[in-house]
Amino acid sequence: MMKTLIKNGRVLDPAHQIDANLDVLAVDGKIAQIAAGIELPDAETIDAGGLLVVPGLIDIHVHLRDPGYEYKEDIVSGTRAAAAGGFAAVACMPNTNPINDNKAVTTYIRQKAAAEGQVRVYPVGSITKGLKGESLAEFGDLQAAGCVAVSDDGRPVTSGEIMRRALEYARSFQLPVISHAEDLSLVGDGVMNEGFVATQLGLRGIPWVAEDAAVARDVQLAEFTGARLHIAHVSTRGAVEIIRAAQRRGVPVTAETAPHYFTLTDEAVRGYDTHAKMNPPLRGAADVQAIRDGLADGTLSVIATDHAPHHVDEKNVEFNLALNGIVGLETALPLTLRLVEEGVLTLTEAIARLTIGPARALGLPGGTLEVGRAADITLVDPTCKWTLDPARLLSRSKNTPFGGWQLKGAAALTMVDGRVVYQR
Q1: What's the CATH superfamily of 3-52+374-423?
Q2: pTM for this model (two decimals)
Q3: Which of 124, 194, 277, 369 has CB atoms 3.0–4.6 Å from 207's, for a disulfide?
Q4: Which of the residues are catalytic?
């Protein structure tokens, strides 16, 4: 019998409004007891003095690049980076090669993750076959193989009719549909946010309405079908307002944003820094404020990384040619804790956006320290100060705009099923 006792920590479980100095006992991979003053001489004891003891963090938007693009990242390196960032579970997007639009690819991901991964990996299947937006994938097969949601992430479903059918079909399986909301006809050849900075740099812009129009369509389709919709990587003020209004009307829609959208503006693109190139693009100051407000009032109940590793040669090119995206698993926690320092979120709210929020959005187990549940636990050192050196990231790729930043807060230990998978 494996017994682990975590003592002297500040236990924070937003799902059950727990915030107290308590001990946590895990027995055979499950949480057995949470109480003050647990004494068990035969348990392995971990001293969590000065640390937060929180549910294992969950990231529901990650690109593990496996199968097909293992030169950027694979399940081994990606889950190692996740564990280092405090994440006990990740959901991986389907734009691999081959695309995860069938049982075989889903099974490969699950088997490799079980054999070689450090954390839980939940595959997300594609909405349409080959991500082509033309015909629906077999949602029943995908779910049976282990997919927890469907998405054409990386591309929008351009046809309203196909998206309607996807929502109706997914509803029969209680599968959430994750929307990459973007009107490509409005994006055109844009490579960054349309505005003053783009004009100064001579780069083609992507207007906010490209996101807002697509979000509005998908929210209305969710209202029409009654299906569960989750909006990925929200970056605009208008999108937050549309989602907030829909939630007030009772539409079953949840939404996420990523740390770069509440931390950076399009000013980061100056110098043609390709590490500041992502999709959707970094927006203006008013959008950043709206994202922060959306996190504060719970409109955006999820912080996800959209961890998008790329090889150095895919970023070290002209801005127009560089691929979109940044790595985020190892920086999400300290960047989220900045919102606490700045008074945007309480500590409980910040942890909720990384735990119970994502778990509820996709209907995943976890996100709470409930007795009887799997012992997925993260110990957080909120005072740890460190400087981000991209070369030291555990992700295979190093494409981050936060290189050289002074960060505060880090995972001290990550546990999955009562087993320590990372210790700082």
Answers
A1: Urease, subunit C, domain 1 (2.30.40.10)
A2: 0.98
A3: 194
A4: 306
